[in-house]
């Protein structure tokens, strides 16, 4: 439970002027990981959850607060907990990135994270960060404005957290363990869920749909979290417009829309006005599918919850369904929605777009495979890569190796551009680029300004949208488009005035995405990867190492004394290599 200090805000009187002195709070939580039975879609299974809850407990803080979370692992898997979108200034030790900033917390052990909310304001989330354990181990983080400050919009009458998730009728972690051994494709989910429930359109679920009661003629704040394993997601409420006001813990210029689209791992704050005829209305979502259209077996579940007005009306009639919820493959709706995301850029919430770029990178994101020639047959393992490098987890975490100057665990040669240039978005059914497996990192000087152009490729005819995420930093999204990036034509479309300030952004299918950020989180070892579970476990990952600055305030903190040791948890690609021998 959180612990509240007695006096979070003080008033000082100086020369007749009232001065607000904001005192940051410290909160303490215990997360106990253990198996528990849950029944959905007519089937019961045991799954790993925190404190017996699914989704897990919500963390409530104000901007500037610090949270200590003691994680007790009573489950069967080694794992870490990551605080998605939290900068963690000078404190990569608590980032919770498996084999990047720490080794997993083994079963029977515990570790306490120190999570510092320095610049975030809005909604974020936490989740497990080892293989696919985050499928059931996740929860929301609510960051209120500092004490004495308010939202940049009228204070809502209430708020509601809606966590969008993925449901499998079996223990998907066991299946993923076998897939990592064989290198084959991942399973399709059985349903999508809202706050742990599939809703009225799924078997054995009609009476269990999540319900939210509201009053007539009020304005409410909805905090959306895309905690799905692999998918981007459309969401809408029947008969009600949504006013988008925030994303990834940053404020946006408000705009009204009939639907929203969340990248995988993204969070969003939206207002809804309850000004319709009292009744029941579906809050519904479905995946935004961008993979190969020849495959039609993807999960077509319409996840649903119900917004219920208080008062007297016919409750026997079925709720209204959102007519303007985009279809699964509506590329135009997704693109047009993203184009409307613009930072608030106010005096109270200024932006600082980097203008003096010293490092430029052009990074291709690809699906790959490695073919194995056996004596009697041929086989392959699936991989994914950035600039033709498929990440391999080291035997100890990169942060420990870097901090203690240990050699042999990684190399400093992650490339600034791909090794081959070709028509990246053409139909390329075979992979002739021969991806390399390695633990290659990119080193950045403290304070330098970085521009990255991500380019999606269509190797294996498998171009897909990628939700690109950087730990320890947020970035400005200057632009995106379809086709191969053109440095002359496309740079003219950049938004340098009020670009959205994100931690997770969509790289369009057969397209490009440009971001900029300042490398100002020192001596950090920060992962940069596709958030989607299957691409991440296949190696679409690298690491940015930011050097120390010139003084203690711009240098890494000392490590805590009880960091988990790297003992028995195997790296992803070691398992693949064993299967190929």
TrEMBL record:
It is found in: Secreted, Extracellular space, Apoplast. Residues 35-146, 160-311, 418-549 form the Plastocyanin-like domain. InterPro entries: Cu-oxidase-like_N, Cu-oxidase_2nd, Cu-oxidase_C, Cu-oxidase_fam, Cu_oxidase_CS, Cupredoxin, CuRO_1_LCC, CuRO_2_LCC. It is an enzyme of class 1 (oxidoreductase). Binds 4 Cu cations per monomer. Residues 1-24 form the signal peptide. Its cofactor is Cu cation. Keywords: Apoplast, Copper, Glycoprotein, Lignin degradation, Metal-binding, Oxidoreductase, Repeat, Secreted, Signal. It comes from the Eukaryota. Belongs to the multicopper oxidase family. Lignin degradation and detoxification of lignin-derived products. This is Laccase. It comes from Gossypium davidsonii.
